[in-house]
């Protein structure tokens, strides 16, 4: 039930986990590099078309007429088999191994795509590849034993038909994997060695605006809730140290099992990435959520993440300023933002 955001898939890495298990998993750059190498996945019809075009272009040099029909037919069958087999094998091999990736990645992928569904589709591709290879080998053996031109042609045609039928059985799996690929390619870069600040709070309280004020992140900002469609990652430098700032989607005041995918992803970001949490409150309640509701979310966060320091911040003090001990800012005007940044850095240095 704990996930995070990702502009349709935007986040990587596990912060504190790597303090103890830094050498247990592939490097973050290794995972990123391999994600970006996932090729575009063709549809079933496109794979069939590609394979048959290769077969049509096959040229066989035959000395004499002996076994000419056999050799041409075998070459065409092998061209189709090799084209399909290499394509499907490349797709399967290009996806990351879910047995070796860090827990954060695993949970993120599971929440956003579904690891079991992904494994099932990759398994379907591997089944298809092996099935077509077996059919091709059987067909080649039959063609080699025959001198009957019509029989040879019939076997070749039968192989083409059976291959098409098998490929079409994994049509939905190919489509699913292509969608998964697009999500994986949108994952941003987050580095475990850098101290990480996670900005959290209810929807529309000003989190994204605060992130743009203190870091290089440029999240999309609008005047309605749920405008943060994924986790945005920004950075800033202080005294030679690079800090990461992560903008999460809004959290609603309700039980974990009732939270949607975006909310779950925000919780995952808090769990795995945060060295410190800046919880933003809108005392004006213009965000659409009452103070009581926002404070219940804050209480839930503090209960669930006791090991992570939380800095409570009241935003929009240009509209409403309460008599509380919380830090006061106006992300819109920039009031108190740099002071907040200094406090966050000081807290991180003290950890």
Describe the structure.
The chain has 351 residues and is of the alpha/beta class. It has two domains: 23-185, Four Helix Bundle (Hemerythrin (Met), subunit A), CATH 1.20.120; 196-349, 3-Layer(aba) Sandwich (Rossmann fold), CATH 3.40.50. Helices cover 50% and strands 10% of the residues. The chain is built from twelve helices and six strands. The chain has helices at 17-21, 28-35, 44-56, 68-94, 103-112, 115-144, 149-169, 171-185, 207-214, 261-273, 291-304, 337-349, and strands at residues 196-201, 232-238, 241-247, 276-281, 309-314, 327-328.
Side by side, the strands of the main sheet go 2-3-1-4-5-6
**What is the rounded distance between the termini?**
28 Å
- Give the CATH architecture of the largest domain: Up-down Bundle
Helix and strand sequence: HHHHHHHHEHEEHEHEEH
Overall number of strands: 6
Largest sheet report:
6 strands, mixed
Quick one: overall form?
Answer: rod-shaped
- The name of the CATH topology of the largest domain is Four Helix Bundle (Hemerythrin (Met), subunit A)
Structural class computed from helices and strand pairing? alpha/beta
Number of helices: 12
Low-confidence stretches: 1-26, 220-228
Q: In the CATH hierarchy, what is the class of the largest domain?
A: Mainly Alpha
- The level of helicity is 40-55%
What's the mean pLDDT score? 81
In the residues, how many domains can be counted?
2
Return Rg in Å: 28 Å
In percent, how much strand structure appears in the residues?
5-15%
